[in-house]
Structure formats: C-alpha cells, structure tokens
Design brief:
Elements lengths: L7 E8 L2 E8 L10 H9 L8 E4 L5 H9 L5 E5 L2 H13 L5 E5 L11 E7 L6 H14 E12 L3 H12 L3 E5 L3 E7 L2
C-alpha cells in the first residue's frame, strides 16, 4: 500500500440469515465490521415483504442491503451526506446483486424524492444535536405513510433524549431492544 492512497476493506457477514459481502474504506463509520448498534437495529427492525424503505445515513449500506433482501418485491432507498459512503453503498449493492435499491447523496431528507415510506431506519450519530435531531424526526414523520415506522439506534446514554423527542414529534415512543451500549427505539406515524 502506498501512503496517501485509500485501501478498500472487504469483509463478509451474515445478517438476518443473509450472507452479504461488503467493501468499505477508512473514514467511513465502522469500516471493518458491522458495529454493535447497527447489528442490533438490523436484528430488531420489522420489515414487510412489500414495504418501501429508507436507510437514512446509510454509510456503506449495511442496513439498507438487509432491508432490500427482506423486501425484495419493494424499493429501498439509501441516502448519506458523504459522497464516499454513497460510492461504497453503490458498490455493495452491485456486489450483492440487488436490483431494488436506489442511492442518493442527501443531507437528511434534502434530496429524497417526494414519496412516502413504510419504514425509515437510522443509526443516529451520538453527536446529532437537538436541532438536527428535531429536523430529522420532523422530516421522517412527513415522509412516513400513515402507520409507518421509524426505527433508530443510538448509544444507550441517549435513550431518554430520543424518547422525549419521539414523543414531541410523533406522540409515541417504543423501546424495542436495549443492551449495555445501544438502544433501538421506534415511533409510529398515527
């Protein structure tokens, strides 16, 4: 490896019973393996066969690829504000032979087509901040179909913060799963 060049990182893993191959790179979140929070979210999100799904802040595409495998008869949209993440997500879609995925460079919902989703997921960064979180939650509510679900995973220390914000924006909050380091929460558009 020459200093100053990016090196691809390749690994394989089984998520929700699907064998998947990933290519990532340094500078992306958890480039060598699926992190514990993402895995917890993947293990506990409920996706129907025909659900239109959105992976918000997709990174190199782990959550979105699993949604695409589960909802093979529907469309999965993946967005990230990092063009490198988008590039690797596109590579991983091709590498895993998925045809029901669409990838967009977008800061939050700014460049997402006007459509409604059954499920929106996100591995929220710990430093999301209250202003950005409120924007993301409000936009997610607007983009969800009636009875659509928003799933997020955060570090467990943010659980009460997320709960207050879910209740403020959606009027409801459900803790789906919590372990020592991460919590998966869900809100439903009523």
């Amino acid at each position: 490896m020459t200093i100053g060049t990016q090196a691809d990182i390749c690994f394989q893993t089984n998520l929700r019973g699907f064998n998947l191959s990933f290519t990532s790179t340094w500078g992306l979140f958890s480039p060598k393996t699926i992190d514990a929070g993402t895995k917890l979210l993947i293990d506990h999100m409920e996706i129907g066969e025909n659900d239109r799904c959105l992976d918000l802040g997709c990174g190199y595409g782990a959550i979105g690829l699993v949604m695409a495998k589960i909802a093979q008869d529907s469309e999965v949209y993946m967005v990230d504000k990092d063009f490198v993440a988008i590039e690797y997500t596109e590579r991983n879609i091709k590498e895993n032979h998925l045809s029901n995925c669409h990838v967009f460079l977008s800061n939050g919902f700014s460049h997402i087509p006007k459509m409604k989703f059954d499920v929106i997921t996100s591995n929220l960064p710990a430093n999301v901040g209250k202003e950005m979180l409120h924007i993301l939650l409000s936009d997610a509510r607007r983009y969800l179909k009636k009875r659509g679900k928003l799933y997020v995973v955060t570090i467990s220390g943010l659980r009460e913060f997320i709960k207050r914000n879910f209740i403020s924006v959606f009027g409801n909050y459900e803790k789906i799963k919590q372990h020592k380091t991460h919590t998966v929460a869900m809100a439903t558009k009523v």
